[in-house]
Amino acid sequence: MMAMQVVSAGGCLLPLRLLPSRRAAAARPPRASGASAAAVEEDGKVTLGGSGVPVTKLGIGAWSWGDTTYWNEFQWDDRKLKAAKGAFDASIDCGITFFDTAEVYGAGISGAINSESLLGRFIKERQQKEEVKVAIATKFAALPWRLGRGSVISALKDSLSRLGVSSVELYQLHWPGIWGNEGYLDGLGDAYEQGLVKAVGVSNYSEKRLRVAYERLKKRGIPLASNQVNYSLIYRNPEENGVKAACDELGITLIAYSPIAQGILTGKYTPDNPPTGPRGRIYTPEFLTKLQPLINRIKEIGASYEKTPTQVVLNWLICQGSNVVPIPGAKNAEQAMEFAGALGWSLTDQEVEEMRSMAREIKPVIGFPVEKL
Ligand SMILES: NC(=O)c1ccc[n+]([C@@H]2O[C@H](COP(=O)([O-])OP(=O)(O)OC[C@H]3O[C@@H](n4cnc5c(N)ncnc54)[C@H](OP(=O)(O)O)[C@@H]3O)[C@@H](O)[C@H]2O)c1
Questions:
Q1: Which residue's CA is the nearest one to ligand 1's atom 47?
Q2: Which of 55, 63, 68 has the most ligand 1 atoms within 8 A of CB, as the residue to mutate?
Q3: Out of 41-45, 86-90, 323-327, which region has the weakest mean confidence (pLDDT)?
Q4: What is the dihedral of CA 265, 271, 277, 279, to 10 degrees?
């Protein structure tokens, strides 16, 4: 059955159930946390740290586009390609113009396609129809055999070529290297000075590494704009390990990855219907059983705003301050449109705290081990 749709203010086709309610539309803007929180631009965008680069308050993650190592049941095909393009176009229609990819996304056998190449293609196709301005974030893979600052510039040039652009808005070190980190940071600085990137960031960096990176770039007058880390209602490590506080203090944007816990916080996976594939090993029926009371409460809170659980948990992140930018992954147009409904309203402080306190009852899953390097 086709869902009923209406066209929203930005020309965005929204299924009726995703429309903002009157209560939601009247709600307050999110709070800023800390003196150094990123500036909120007039058009509702935020700046990436001290870089001056504006991005939408929510970005779209493109890890699953073309990937057959973790996502897509290990198979890529034309149907999935069309759906991914639908996700890109729907994001633009809804005013979301910030996209996160990486040189290693879209890897695998079974017809995998590099995510940067797909994003570049989608941008080009869209630009053939109309002028669109997007902000691209991509990442350098700190592989052990890559040494020295030159390896960063060389990988970046390959990324730019796949994306079909002469510069990107944000270039990030995907994870700390086992060695060679000073060289990587110097390479980031070189990329910035050469005008190949408008802002530089890191990802999966601990508080200690973040401070070192910040200071090293600062000596060259370059702001460290962001740290992209795993952060969601049920994975609050950044609140506990000093990363969030350091970002607030230094004016660094915290880009929240896996913000809907890889689909688990949408409420669609239950103990009787757990996710398949690699996610099934992380989010087991036992874990999902413990999660149900929280999911039920999220649904109740969502109902009072006429919002879906996905929109509630993304709004919970946005409520953590204007320097938190979630980047949920969308596989199709409907998922991307749903994300847009997380913007333009705000949970109350009491709801934010109640959800955090309920989430504390659930033991977090094991994250990406590189964040402990
Ligand atoms: N820096 C890093 O090390 C790192 C690590 C991980 C991710 N990331 C970045 O963060 C982005 C997002 O993280 P993620 O993809 O791991 O997890 P996520 O955004 O928490 O979850 C994405 C998944 O949730 C499901 N979903 C999305 N929208 C939905 C909706 N509206 N309703 C129901 N289900 C929905 C989809 O999977 P199904 O439809 O199959 O359920 C989708 O693939 C990535 O794309 C990537 O850009 C970075």
A1: 61
A2: 63
A3: 41-45
A4: 40
